[in-house]
Amino acid sequence: MAVARVTEIISSSDKSFDDAVKSGIVRANKTLKNVRGAWVSGMKVEVEKGKIKEYRVDLKVTFVLND
Predict the structure, then answer these.
(1) Dihedrals phi, psi of 23, to nearest 5 degrees
(2) What is the C-alpha to C-alpha distance for residues 31 and 48, in angstroms, rounded to an integer?
(3) N or C terminus: fewer CB in 10 A for the chain?
(4) Distances (CA, A) of 5 to 9, 18, 25, 35, 48
């Protein structure tokens, strides 16, 4: 039987929401082992002088714990 855990991370990108998600998953894999999935629980943009400066996503990352 596998036991999984969920952790929340925030990732950002100056390009797009998609890029922020990809960056978050890449970074999560550097620290967490057995990452199995993630879902976006929130999205936000930072605006400066009327233009989008940064895209941010809140990710809930699921990973399986080792025995």
Answers:
(1) -65, -40
(2) 32
(3) N
(4) 13, 24, 15, 10, 36
